[in-house]
């Protein structure tokens, strides 16, 4: 390859994730991350790089990826192949024009990549569901009777999903610390993270039609890192009988680069056996998960961003219900998905305590505070703390990363 890319870069030639960027001199547009660079797809298209692929090149000039995603899998795969050919050919005719279409990432502003029409949040990690059930109900009956029969989910709030680097104020709401007394109003004292992945829908279905498990992945464009911020004390008071509302709708954070299905193909792994057997519409010929390492770090307010510490390390493969099963269940009643819809995985927790994907679990409801290496103590997220989620897949010399989603908590207004 004629560009020099660090072997540990998240954005290798094997990755080529899509996003939206701008610079002081250019408007929002589609870009592809490659090492420390962003490929300006509008400029590269103007040079004729994609002339052999039949689609509207104006999709690269849009402020969201939706139009490009709607062009379909064949176009997406074709564009990735052209990019790999260009940068792997030392005699590429485009090499001499590199300064025209390569933008240093440090000079760019990254924007939310997708116009999210609808957002569904699943609850698909068995260990997370077990931990929550054991904590608040009965360890002997931690899972609700339906949990192993269907991918539990609820409809979330799309308008409050923002890209990495966007900060938010601590939310306020009703809590009831003492249920023998009336509720009180004020800022949450139990602001929590939820380590998740988000599936981006690249092809929808008509109302009344179902998407089968074996067809489901054809409807996926790619994946993002996702932090489903949660106010646990607000959630505890409000969730009966319909589930969380103000406890979760105030803010969610996503990473800026969408990693495609093709980039993750080398990292497929078998799923854990699903017992009891699922209903026929949730059975598939090739159900798989993805081996993606996920890490959460904290930069404590007291250190003013000078130090960061690992809170947990989990993996996307720790999912009981697969992405394909989530999509099949979502549409089995005829619900129509649209291009740009986002399906979050739910908190991803492993079996070991240091792989739990939320502070609720890591501190066991605040009963076991975390002592950071610098001596600071955390039960939940404090004002001016910064939380960073990173993710990557690695097999030999092939590395595919997601970058990061980074958010700082501001005091309540």
Helix content: 10-25%
Radius of gyration: 22 Å
- Report the major sheet: 8 strands, mixed
CATH architecture of the largest domain: Alpha-Beta Complex
Quaternary organisation:
single chain
**Mean pLDDT over the full residue set:** 98
Note the overall shape.
globular
The number of strands is 26
Count of separate structural domains: 2
Q: What is the CATH topology classification name of the largest domain? A: Fumarylacetoacetate hydrolase, domain 2
Q: Quick one: CATH class of the largest domain?
A: Alpha Beta
Please identify the structural class as seen in this structure.
alpha+beta
| Uncertain runs | none
CATH H-level homologous superfamily name of the largest domain: Fumarylacetoacetase-like, C-terminal domain
The number of distinct helices, counting runs of at least 4 residues, comes to: 10
Distance between the termini: 50 Å
- How much strand? 25-35%
Binding site for substrate: 123, 137, 235, 239, 347
Family: Belongs to the FAH family.
GO biological process, one term: L-phenylalanine catabolic process
Cofactor: Ca(2+); Mg(2+)
